[in-house]
Specification:
139 residues, alpha+beta, six-stranded antiparallel β-sheet, 20% helix
Length: 139
Amino acid sequence: MKRYLVVPAKTYSTASKLKQKPNASEVLTKYLLQRDLPPWTSYFVKYDDIVNDQRGFSHFNWSVKDKNYHILRTGCYPYIKYHCTCRPHEDLSTEDSLFRLIKIMNFAIFLISHKEIVQTSKGEVTIHFLYKEDIGAQY
């Protein structure tokens, strides 16, 4: 009698590898527009759901329509965190360098409790929050 070794097939999702992913910059812009250009917001997005076209950016200006946002962006795999504040355009190159240095020296652990869907030209992207925001709040 012959015996065969039965090895279970690998079960993992390749859906994220097959679908076209939007750029992180598109998700940022579309989310700010979806929220009617809020005074501030903060969210997380999974690396697997986007093309990371803002790699290396930590603190930078981002214009949407007639508004400018200061974006503070940091990665903590499997997420990228964005903190966005509507402020006048400034030279943020010094802060950008400082935040990059701080990120190298730090580790972050967070608990995500809320999520929303952002519609992009390449489909839906789920973004994540520490807590549900009070829409329209100034602080």
